[in-house]
């Protein structure tokens, strides 16, 4: 291999893996793999032709990425359609997006060690709720289009029965319409498009309506009458709003909206060819328990101090399964944090100034175009103008492109221009010149004239004009045209961002320190091991992360012309080819922007395949009882009926029960969903029998790719009988979890399902399919360079070595801990896959110490807890990953053994059941230092149980009262007095 990026990525050395194998009980490292991986699958498609065997060095990978980036042309993107050119404050880019304390964190399921990002997400919720004018926002969605779908589903649940009609604004974003169409068809929802702004009547019966505010055309109008009419018809009003426009416009909540959705991209988040961006949803009082996704709430800790945690967790898919209201298991936390901090940094005055600047530049441009004699309509606007140029639209767009600006070619007669925060006067000058040339318009005043009215001498370098300069009309002699002022009834009078957090961090110094203070409260991979089973918290290499902030990747509009995105298309095609090769499939779509969306896309492909063959009755999806909770939720949202298949005592799919379920649903069988290796952390020995049985009955096999980390280089899903799978690039392929997003969940399929994979009306590369499942053609394309670099640097040999190292590490941990905690499931040879489940139920029975006690005590030892009570209640699922070195593995094992001994002291009566280091964990500095110490164990035992003084992690709060937070639901920034 090349100078060995794999050796940087994999924590254990070859010699250490040999010693680990000896402790496991095998002759060598190869022996561990031979015992763990069943002979029936070993070597099935282990090698591929598309992916190079050897990786390249980090420098070589960056050089290749530079070549790809150079094939993307960075133009000023004025296309709009929900994506805007924005400016990421450097303090946020450096201290959030490029900071491993933020991007290597996990979802905040352990709130005591997640207080920093929970506070940041509460800022996000408060920001969204304030601007939208409704009380309860969630902690982000995947993008605007999928948020609109979830808004539609909230409306349907709120109405409960009656009509299946959902109205869609004719002026909604086109990609939102397309995603709604795909999702509605699977659920039996009838979409009816209505020109709401034009006064077209609503259907007599409906359960809800989506209003775009402002419209995709740029039109600003008052939808209150439509909202009222929807309510009279018994429906719920969903408003898709522009978050920045709401700084100037009356909030949707004040106009009667029930649900508000949208994207926070223009709050400092790079375009990234479509993502990742944080969508949002906010609801009226009474709908908070219908809200999908995650919700950050306020509670208190064991000392009564204010603390944050995820609220209403009963909605999580792992618990509700087929009764789940959504399959959104990933949010876009890192991007939500960026958007929230953009608002914190700028504050209400700054956000309003940016909005006024955008609107003023748009008004200025409209005046210049009017001077050219062009028709820009009479409607009020915020940032978008549609210009009529009969039969000349393509010529105008081409002229603008030659001038370095991208416009929206609406149709043969119409061009759209959308102004963003980063739009300069030079950009506007180029737009005017394009219209003058392409439309053959006149050359009256305006920018570039020499009569003094439009002098641009101070603007030649592309700097922005001040709002004041634009408002005074110094750049144009054109009068303000009818309809350009905002309607009086839509001028915002409500305050927003009034919490002190949005006015306390104006200087860069203050902002930097605030971000550092929050990061210090959290536990991320830059502190130590995160041994979460099922989640693969591996190294996210700095080299792989480097390219995402290059403008050639970060400043590309998702609907840019094909000729400007050659580098992206080449990278995407290469990555799709590598993933197809590694998994044994024929086609891959990178569009799904979360694992849950990949699941849905795979199931929709199966549904489309059956329907194309006339098998309309095939709607039963078999799912083992051990499966990820998202599996069942995705199946329901794909229009399928879930039938649960039992697992045997070894954790494998019960073959007899599977055959019985297949027999009883033979004519209706659509699919089986299984995870391989299984969610129980073992390789199913009967996997070929399982997939053959389903195929024999006419069904399709969906193999959940969540555990591909334990298979690469040894076997491929397509060779195990899989027809379709989703992959988790944020797990196996090293995209950071980012505190709970970004994620990428591509879907891979055999040739017969390929025609039913996602497609997109604005995709730069042609592909047949069912339509989009995400807003952008290639989903979260902005982070694909990470996985591209990971695969390129590892090569097939490195990826295989990573699998081997992960499996050896898991078996090493299981072997060392087995005499202290039973390992619940193993394969036929007594080995686990890449993770192991430790059974803590005997510990609870013997000592009274619960799985929660062990998880919280691990914090005192300096660890994030493993996955708690999934897939089996009362257990811990441990996945060490290949990235951890032997010293860190041993540190974790030693901590677990020490905790077992502490539990023994509780059982022996040395420490009381209710007052011991485990029951009281985690211990904060204040709890150890302030006041009298009345516990039967020492302060040192409380806070330095491992003796590690120098590397001590101090949790900011003690154990949090989860129930209190649900009984007293608070989901916005509490007043300062609450911290007293």
From TrEMBL:
Residue(s) carrying N6-(pyridoxal phosphate)lysine: 731
Organism lineage string: Bacteria, Bacillati, Actinomycetota, Actinomycetes, Micrococcales
Keywords: Oxidoreductase, Pyridoxal phosphate
Named cofactor requirement(s): pyridoxal 5'-phosphate
Complex and partners: The glycine cleavage system is composed of four proteins: P, T, L and H.
CDD domains named among the record's database cross-references: GDC-P (cd00613)
Keyword 4Fe-4S assigned: no
Region (Disordered): 440-484
Enzyme Commission numbers on file: 1.4.4.2
Biased composition (Gly residues): 440-451
Protein name: Glycine dehydrogenase (decarboxylating)
Glycine dehydrogenase C-terminal domain sequence ranges: 802-923
InterPro entries xref list: GcvP, GDC-P_C, GDC-P_N, GDC_P, PyrdxlP-dep_Trfase, PyrdxlP-dep_Trfase_major, PyrdxlP-dep_Trfase_small
Family: Belongs to the GcvP family.
SUPFAM superfamilies reported in the protein's UniProt record: PLP-dependent transferases
